[in-house]
User: What shape does this take?
Amino acid sequence: MTSHASTRSRVAVRAPISIPVGLRRTVLVLGVGLSLILAVVTVRMAAGWAAASAPLAEPPAALSSIEAALAGERARSAALQSQLDSLRTSSDELAAALGAANDRLALDQTTADGLRTSLAAAQQKLATLEAAMKAAARAARAAGGGTTTQSTTQREVEAGDD
Assistant: This one.
């Protein structure tokens, strides 16, 4: 323990400095006041820099003008919606008309196919009748009947056409 005791004796213990209480309070109040003044100055300088770096060329729009623009855009939107509905209705009508035209086209195609078949049958019948007339005319000439037989054959062909 002697070594510990000797270490203590070597360290000099100083007595606390006594500053009068009034002076300590004054210094503390002045420090806080100076800090507040520095804070205010800093904020004002930052506000000045911000204002200088972003000047407003035009003042901001008034609330009434923004509301008027909003009302105008809503009216425009309603008009566009009405036009869109009208176009949708027209498109539906056009699609229905196109469907009816396609149906009519299919019916016309069926009718045309039937008429082609009838025409081919009539042409075949005509060719058969013309061949029969020619054969009859040759037979009449060979028999020596002349033109009387030919006109009779034409009447027979016309009667067979009914």
Q: What stands out?
A: The helical segments are 2-10, 21-53, 63-143, 147-161. The first helix runs from residue 2 to 10. The chain has a mean pLDDT of 85. The chain is about 85% helix and 0% strand.
